[in-house]
Amino acid sequence: AVRLAPRNANAHYLLSQAYTQSGQPSQAEAALQVSKRLSAAERNYNQGLNNARRRYWDRANALFVKAIQIDSTYLEAYIRLGMVHLYQEAPDKGITILERALTLDADNVEAFCLLGEAYLVRDRPDSAQHFFVKALNVDSTSVRAHFGRGKSAYQSRDLQAAIASFQRALALHPDHGDAHYHLGLAHMNLGKLRKAAHSFQACIEIDPGDVRANYALGQLFMRYDKPDLARQSFNKVLEQDPKHPKALEKLAQLEQDNETANQASTR
Fold this sequence. Notes:
single chain, 14 helices
């Protein structure tokens, strides 16, 4: 059992009991120490997860580091620590930790995706693309990898490739709001305004309070010369973020355009 699952603390503990009962005290003590070490690492890891869920990033960071110090083969701790570094806006540290994770599992899809996301933060879309492709070579159904590949293509301004990747992500996960939103951005940059509007509306159907999608849809309605619908979209933005500077600016612009139109009609 411990050969098949070398990090299973309970298996090592039971092995120590078996050694004790069979009169092999030195082997029993060695197995017991391994069990204690693995249990301590797991406690720190689980506490790190709890702190990460509550967004206590510094505390989570320290606990994952402690788990790795106790057990240098703790793959999940490396991956979660890499994730925390990304949340702490320290992508270089995240990349270093995630590369160590790959020395423990050379085909880990989550590590590949996190590395891709770290390189996107560093504005290195080619490197990001490399890791998302690696993830897809292991798991062609990874929504996260398809979406990440789309973002890296979008960052490289390869909009057609970005659209194709976002569409693959949505084929696997139709309610992926971020994929709908970024697909809308890609269409908008290509001047395909109707397709962009459709994507933003799909995003809003999933989350009516999505600030980004409502703001983008408001911009599109302004281009279509539909001020009332644009105003509705910008007001929805302000319901979620009353101080949203761009939405306030667009509403002021709509009011100014309306006043100008009224003055022109009365001349």
